[in-house]
Each structure stands twice: as structure tokens, then as C-alpha cells.
Amino acid sequence: MAATILILNGPNLNLLGTREPDIYGRETLETIEAACRNRAADLDMDVDFRQSNDEGQLVTWIQEAPKSHAGIVINAGAYTHTSVALLDALSAIDLPIIEVHLSNIHRREEFRHHSFVSKAADGMICGLGGQGYELALEALAKRLKN
Ligand code: CA2
């Protein structure tokens, strides 16, 4: 049976493609989801692609993930820089985790340089736009094979 990867998107990522194209590009979350589905099919994986503006909802999805998912790709949006709750939830599960950011957070404001999510992630990809999600799926496919 194909492994299912949970792809989590945090607050405001539903607005992609509508504003700030100079930072986040013109892709919408829907086009990123479609690209992930195509890439996952090539890799013989399924994706479960979700977005929430609610920190508690993201925590609940992370807690439930080991029952039905083989790995997590997470762009926690601004919660990346603030949420000990997300760090605790990610640290409490035994799944491979890849953190993704569309923008290069290290080229931006100082407050975006620190990530709580990174403390629990196996790897982090940033600055490559939606392609970062596809690269994260490739990384998980390789890890799950080994
Ligand atoms: O670069 C990323 O992927 C971020 O996770 C995006 C977050 C930001 O807070 C992180 O520092 C880096 C923001 C997502 C909100 O995206 C918007 C898109 C269009 C219009 C407004 C917000």
C-alpha cells in the first residue's frame, strides 16, 4: 500500500497568489497541492494536503498523524517562529518530518530566522517556492525506502 504523507500548511497560506507575489510568488496553495499530488504519484505515495489558520487544529492533526500517515511535510507559516505547542506536538511523534518555507526566511527580518519547528524536523527547505514541497516529498520517499 502506498504511504500517505501529511502536508500541513499554517496561517495565511490560503492567501497565496493573492498578495505579496514578490515574496511568495504567484502560485496558489491549490497549484502547490496539484504539483504535490503529481510528484507523489511518481514516487508511489499519496498526499493528504491540509491548511489551517488555527494552531490547535494543527496540533491535533500532528497528534493524529502516526495512526494514518508515514511522514509529515510542514510549512507552519508564522507559527514557525512562535509556537512551542507545535514543537511539542512534532517532538512527541515518531515520524520523519520535513519543514518547508516558500521564502528564504534567513534573508528576511530577524524574527523569521528562528524556527521552533526546525528543532523537531529532520530537514528544512526554504527559498525555493512551491518546489520545496516537491523536494520534501522526494526526501521522505528516500527515507521511507531506507
Ligand atoms: O516562507 C514561508 O513559507 C513562510 O512560512 C510564510 C509565512 C511567514 O510568516 C513565514 O515567516 C515564512 C507567511 C504565510 C502567509 O502568506 C501570505 C501570502 C499572501 C499574502 C499574505 C500572506
Distance between the termini: 16 Å
In the sheet with the most strands, the strands line up as: 2-1-3-4-5
CATH homologous superfamily name?
A: Dehydroquinase, class II
Which structural class is indicated by helix and strand composition? alpha/beta
How many whole angstroms does the radius of gyration measure?
14 Å
- Report the bound ligands by name, code or SMILES: ligand CA2
If you average the pLDDT, what whole number results? 97
Can you put this structure into words, describing what you see?
The structure is a single chain. This protein is an alpha/beta fold. It has a single domain (3-145), classed as Dehydroquinase, class II (Rossmann fold, 3-Layer(aba) Sandwich). 38% of the residues lie in helices and 19% in strands. It has helices at 21-24, 29-42, 55-68, 84-91, 131-145; strands at 3-9, 45-51, 71-75, 97-101, 123-126. Strands 2-1-3-4-5 form a 5-stranded parallel beta sheet, sandwiched between helices. The radius of gyration is 14 Å and the shape is globular. The site of ligand CA2 has 17 residues, from loops.
Quick take:
The chain has 146 residues and is an alpha/beta fold.
How do the strands and helices of this protein lay out in sequence?
Layout: E1 3-9, H1 21-24, H2 29-42, E2 45-51, H3 55-68, E3 71-75, H4 84-91, E4 97-101, E5 123-126, H5 131-145
Parallel strand pairs: 1-2, 1-3, 3-4, 4-5
Helix pairs in contact: 2-5, 3-4
This protein binds ligand CA2.
